[in-house]
From TrEMBL:
<dbReference type="InterPro" id="IPR024775">
    <property type="entry name" value="DinB-like"/>
</dbReference>
<dbReference type="Pfam" id="PF12867">
    <property type="entry name" value="DinB_2"/>
</dbReference>
<dbReference type="InterPro" id="IPR034660">
    <property type="entry name" value="DinB/YfiT-like"/>
</dbReference>
<protein>
    <submittedName>
        <fullName>DinB family protein</fullName>
    </submittedName>
</protein>
<feature type="domain" description="DinB-like">
    <location>
        <begin position="36"/>
        <end position="189"/>
    </location>
</feature>
């Protein structure tokens, strides 16, 4: 009986300690992230939903992406983000890694810098998807990721990617990359549309 009572007390103490621990990813963090994902989603829709086939396929130069390819690239990244989030959210919280991670501002500044970035092969556009179908592809993935973030109870600031880097990235910072990457390519879309030879 004493043994049972002892283990009951130990279990209760552990449970209270667990439930009493405050999350590092606050409600404000979560709402801000959801807001950014919605804002960038809506901006992509606003800039592309009424394009003509000629506008979708226009290239400012032979080696540059069309708007269709830019949006396909964003859609492919939604698949990558989905995998990152679903795997990352199952990782064990490691708040001690916050001592060596970079600040959020680093990721915001890096993704928004003007220098060109080379797209990963897994997210390079194929050009096979035509016109507005790329927007449908993108919206499908974004809605899945929005639903995941809305419903997740994971502490995104305490959970880190499984990488061996000395400056690990927590899942909140992955989400900064997520919506920031969309902002980056929205600028690219606006640049394409600003060209004098862009179909009007």
């Amino acid at each position: 009986m004493k043994i049972i009572t002892f283990f009951t007390v130990v279990w209760l103490c552990a449970a209270l300690r667990c439930f009493g621990q405050e999350k590092l990813w606050t409600a404000a963090d979560k709402q801000s992230t959801i807001g950014q994902l919605i804002r960038t989603r809506d901006a992509v829709v606003r800039e592309t939903e009424n394009l003509t086939p000629e506008q979708w396929s226009f290239r400012e130069a032979p080696d540059r992406w069309s708007i269709a390819e830019i949006v396909e690239h964003l859609a492919l990244w939604e698949i990558v983000w989905s995998r990152e989030l679903s795997i990352g959210a199952r990782n064990k919280p490691q708040p001690e890694l916050l001592k060596t991670t970079r600040p959020d501002s680093y990721y915001q500044e890096f993704i928004m810098e003007p220098n060109p970035h080379k797209a990963a092969e897994i997210a390079a556009p194929t050009g096979f998807i035509k016109g507005k179908d790329n927007l449908t592809f993108f919206l499908r993935g974004r809605e899945q990721n929005l639903t995941f973030v809305r419903n997740s109870d994971a502490d995104m600031r305490a959970i880190f990617e499984l990488t061996g880097t000395p400056e690990p990235r927590n899942m909140h910072q992955v989400l900064i990359y997520h919506w920031g990457h969309t902002d980056r390519h929205l600028r690219q879309i606006l640049k394409v549309k600003s060209r004098p030879s862009y179909p009007r």
